[in-house]
Amino acid sequence: xxxxxxxxxxxxxxxxxxxxxxxxxxxxxxxxxxxxxxxxxxxxxxxxxxxxxxxxxxxxxxxxxxxxxxxxxxxxxxxxxxxxxxxxxxxxxxxxxxxxxxxxxxxxxxxxxxxxxxxxxxxxxxxxxxxxxxxxxxxxxxxxxxxxxxxxxxxxxxxxxxxxxxxxxxxxxxxxxxxxxxxxxxxxxxxxxxxxxxxxxxxxxxxxxxxxxxxxxxxxxxxxxxxxxxxxxxxxxxxxxxxxxxxxxxxxxxxxxxxxxxxxxxxxxxxxxxxxxxxxxxxxxxxxxxxxxxxxxxxxxxxxxxxxxxxxxxxxxxxxxxxxxxxxxxxxxxxxxxxxxxxxxxxxxxxxxxxxxxxxxxxxxxxxxxxxxxxxxxxxxxxxxxxxxxxxxxxxxxxxxxxxxxxxxxx
Length: 411
What we know:
Elements: E1 3-7, H1 11-22, E2 26-31, E3 46-47, H2 61-68, E4 75-77, H3 86-95, H4 98-112, H5 115-126, E5 132-133, E6 137-141, H6 144-161, E7 165-169, H7 170-176, E8 186-190, E9 194-196, H8 199-212, E10 216-219, E11 222-227, E12 234-238, E13 241-245, E14 247-250, H9 256-260, E15 270-279, E16 289-291, E17 296-301, E18 304-309, E19 311-313, H10 323-332, E20 347-353, E21 360-363, E22 370-374, H11 380-396
Parallel strand pairs: 1-2, 1-14, 2-10, 4-19, 6-16, 14-22
Antiparallel strand pairs: 3-9, 5-9, 6-8, 7-8, 11-12, 12-13, 15-18, 15-19, 15-20, 16-17, 17-18, 21-22
Helix pairs in contact: 1-8, 1-11, 5-8, 5-11
């Protein structure tokens, strides 16, 4: 019998477990918490089929100055912690150069193109259609100059990838979105993305499908990962006991690096912490909306209007810093009646971003039957099922729908 253990029960791990199960594997899924309760729980809930370019690091003098002086709310950091980020950040900056970023985006877009279709299959099988809105989302611009810049960029993306959007004036935006009290200079409505009313619940629905179809979920922490003496099996010692399987998949997001270091594998990441809180808005928005000039997203959720922030560059174990969220709250109050906070304490979680902005999907170097699926940055929720399909094909030894070489671990 073909057997596999998948470590990590976020969107990427759960989708990977389901795909392997569909390929005839007996699969055990392992996580220290229930499925979808870590980073996959806290995102903006957008399946972003329009996001054909990964987030590049700003290279313009003005943008870098705004980040360095704390004027930008897209990225914040503590100067004393910056040396801990320096190596991965410098590589991230190097890969963000226009020509290199264009080449990276071509590979990235090939995976994004699979996102909606692979999610759709799982949504229907899991009976989770009640969580999905298939009417796109919006990027709102406060100033005319930024709106015009956004439109130029949108036109470039449409020309290169066929992405669908429409431009809305401020008056048109207010007419279509009565929950807004101001719409700045206007908005771009991206037609193809889907939004999710509760991201964690969607992951839970996929995990429930996995268990209904015969999969096993073990809620336990991983204490040791090693190959058997024969090299034919992988042994995973957990707080709930010893597990064994022929194949192991590391889908642990930001925790992947720590799990792989004892095996002599080193994967430095840019760690981007994000925050969210919910608000009891008297007039919720009809569409998820990004306030582009203030670095946050307003998302109508089951729990209330969710504000999700940009990137807080921080080190593991550091306490949360809510400055970004507080700035976002003030900015959001200029656009809508936000309402009171629902939770006493905001949520925080960290996104795993590789220095070249592409996830790691494929076999681990020098370790037979050890497979990797992590490093999706801001798009693990979007790309989970698509990257699972790619990895599953590689494990099964069949030709995948996406060219795998840009995502290989030894690149």
